[in-house]
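User: Teach me something about this protein's shape.
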Amino acid sequence: MDWDDLRVFLAVARTESLSGAGKTLRCDAATVGRRVTRLEEALKARLFLRSPQGYQLTDAGQRLLPHAEAAETAMTAAGEDLGGTAGKISGQLRIGAPDGCANYVLPQVCAAISDLHPDLDIQIVALPRVFNLSRREADLVIGVSPPTAGRLTVQKLTDYHLHLAAHRDYLARHPPIRSTADLGAHRIIGYIPDMIFDKELDYLGETGAGPVRLGSNSVSVQMQMVRARAGIGVVHDFAIPGAAGVVKVLPDEISLKRSFWLIRHADDRRSDRMNRLAEALSEGLRREVARLEALT
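Assistant: First, the predicted structure itself:
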């Protein structure tokens, strides 16, 4: 079985299309289609169901998938073993994260990793949704809750804290807030309710605050609304040091705690490169969250 054919198989399985696989592999869709057909003929098994909606794995394709992923891991490990220099890591690392972490914590963490490994290309994908590791949308994912299904390795990174917050100028122009009962007189900033992609992000139910009057599916947009003196919102403590004039509201009465989790594909445990990168990311994130929260 040709490794290049397995690479094509994995690309189609992850993108569910010939064109998507072609972009990943930097070749045309027709070539991808011929390679898939060649692999199916060699194995005497149909690997994909073709439809207008895309390419879906058959039972035979599902059985082949873990073997192809194991081959990919072995080839990557061989390249790392033969090509490594003085402990430096090169290549590409794509990190998926919710936009709060991606905006306020990861830039500093990734800058430090890049200083240690200047030939490493780091990409931060900040999206308010759950990432699909089986499709290799990212190499490492930071989540706000641990997944319960899939061939994944999950470890808790650190707790982080959130509070109601507003700009000092907003608070000076509006009725005082001495208890949660006073929140009803204020404009609330938060998530668009039907776009909350993880139950851990459903903050307002725990605060006693009223309905969302200014909403966004992005944490960073919500913070910009708070900075614009538009109202009161739940913000990450680690975001406050970078937002001049923003202060906590009722910190002794309302305090939320959540956790970040590092999520990896199970096969990546065999890769020394990925283990080292995961360790560097984990240590850096814990340290940066603790540093920023200590400033609030």
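Now, about its shape. The chain has two domains: 3-83, 87-296. Residues 87-296 form a domain with the D-Maltodextrin-Binding Protein; domain 2 fold (CATH 3.40.190.290). If you'd like, I can walk through any region in more detail.
User: That's plenty for now, thanks!
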